[in-house]
Write a structure and sequence with these properties.
195 residues; mainly alpha; two-stranded antiparallel ribbon; single chain
Length: 195
Amino acid sequence: MSLESSRRRLLDDAAAMRAFAHPVRLALHELLLRAGAMTAADAGREVGISQALASYHLRQLAKYGFVEQAEARDERERPWKVTETVQDWDDGATAEQAAARSLLEQVIAERALSRLVEWQQHRQDEPGAWRRIGGVGNTYLYATPDEVTAVSAAIAELLGPLMARVDDPSARPGDARPVLLTQVVVPLPPTGSGD
């Protein structure tokens, strides 16, 4: 399964990008991706907030199409589920879109950095295989925009089968666990010397 065939959404609405950029909403969205459908009460407990606050943020996510009501086991519960597993965002054709994109990228990067710090604090408690794969890689390249786009597309193609497991828990191997893979691509200014 390719990444293209997973549930994917292009964010081109500045208001939706700003709504998604809230740290609590990102935490709730990630939780629903990891755990599947949950009620606001259960989700609130998991992320350390009240049921009322979780319910409010889930309704805001629903307003912008990031989550929706899931099928309930009985009439008393109202579980929520994610609507897509992948979000891409527009390149910011307007100043409002560009500002919203920058905000969303900054919040996602801060969240990823926070997760890295958490990982570093308990890395030594992890089994060797997991201890070896967690961390940060840093690669400098000289590439054209087309080449960077091709690298990103190749990575997306490799991730497709693994991302399919988000929607299909039965496809997960017994030793699989959630992994956060944050891609940061930063074009650096030219050096002036041509190097």
